[in-house]
Design goal:
alpha/beta, Quinone Oxidoreductase, Chain A, domain 1, Rossmann fold, 2 domains, 10 helices, 27% strand
Length: 326
């Protein structure tokens, strides 16, 4: 049996590169040699918080779900050997942190050969933002506040403006990430957190609050801040994931009295036709967004522990931390 290198999450905050059995070809599924994968905020929740799964060890390659690879066995499907593909498996099939993986055809999109792999890789997260925004009310010049300026928050800056936001306020204590929002011409930036951030957003909106709050961080702290920042009858969009299996304290009274609406998002990878990911790829192919500033740090798969440490505690301008299998 052949072997490969793959990440193995062995316990909380303990992820390592191991030599494991490589998957064999299988009819109806595609065997992909991975070129590159990225660490998503969801992956950080798995590794450092044990949410949503903590039945360790996780299968080799899990929970990676943002990747680009090359088909090495088509499994009798419509894909071709040698074809580059975006690999966007859902959380149950996610195995992108490995040199080789078997992928169901639903989670694959053919890629052009003319664009840098690292830039195409960003289509996964941009696609999740586009998918999530389809649940939002129509934006027609409204004021939005985006909590967190990691790559997910930055992609929200870009996309919300594109679909009609008139004013974008960002909340991010990390100076380099906060300044990255300037790429998308955000109107105002807030460099504090907690109640100070709430006060700042209210001051910027003359005490009214923002029409839409996007929580791109996750956890009970930002969720309750979002409730306080939103204007009456406004909308809270929860994009960031929980950090615990425990129940999260939540100000239901304020939500009720302010008549706020909320949405959550999950399942972009299961969307029929992967429409949102294809739209994201089109945006990249047409040069409508510059992905170069996002690709800040690339580690070999063997250094996955170091890569996760940086992604969890960003420094040195880290926006998107990726892994190379080449």
């Amino acid at each position: 049996m052949s072997t490969m290198k793959a990440a193995v999450l062995e316990s909380l905050a303990d992820i390592n590169c191991r030599e494991v059995p490589a998957p064999e070809p299988e009819a109806g599924r595609v065997l992909v040699r991975m070129l590159m994968s990225s660490i998503c905020g969801t992956d950080l929740h798995y590794v450092f918080h044990g949410w949503p799964r903590n039945n360790w060890p996780l299968p080799p390659g899990s929970p990676g779900h943002e990747g680009v690879g090359v088909v090495i066995d088509d499994g009798g499907t419509e894909f071709s050997v040698g074809q580059r593909v975006l690999t966007v498996p859902n959380i149950w099939e996610a195995r992108n942190f490995a040199e080789v993986q078997l992928v169901s055809t639903h989670f694959l999109i053919p890629l052009p050969d003319t664009i840098e792999v690292a830039h195409l890789l960003m289509a996964q997260q941009l696609g999740t933002v586009i998918f999530a925004a389809s649940e939002l009310p129509k934006l027609d010049g409204e004021t939005v506040a985006v909590l967190g300026q990691g790559s997910a928050g930055l992609f929200h800056d870009f996309w919300l403006r594109r679909i009609g936001a008139g004013r974008v306020i960002t909340v991010e204590p990390n100076k380099q990430r906060r300044e990255a929002g300037r790429m998308f011409d955000v109107d105002d930036t807030v460099d504090v957190t907690g109640q100070a951030a709430v006060d700042a957003v209210l001051a910027l909106t003359d005490g009214v609050g923002a029409d839409l709050i996007v929580d791109a961080v996750g956890g009970n702290n930002t969720l309750n801040q979002a409730v306080k920042m939103a204007k009456a009858t406004g909308h809270i969009h929860i994009f960031g994931l929980p950090t615990t299996h425990d129940l999260v304290p939540f100000d239901l009274g304020a939500l009720f009295l302010k008549r706020l609406n909320t949405t959550t998002t999950f399942g972009a990878q299961d969307e029929p036709g992967l429409v949102a990911f294809r739209e994201a790829l089109g945006i990249i192919e047409r040069g409508e967004i510059d992905m170069a500033p996002f690709v800040t740090h690339v580690f070999p798969l063997e250094q996955i522990r170091e890569a996760f440490t940086l992604a969890h505690e960003p420094a040195g301008g880290a926006l998107k931390v990726s892994l190379s299998m080449e």
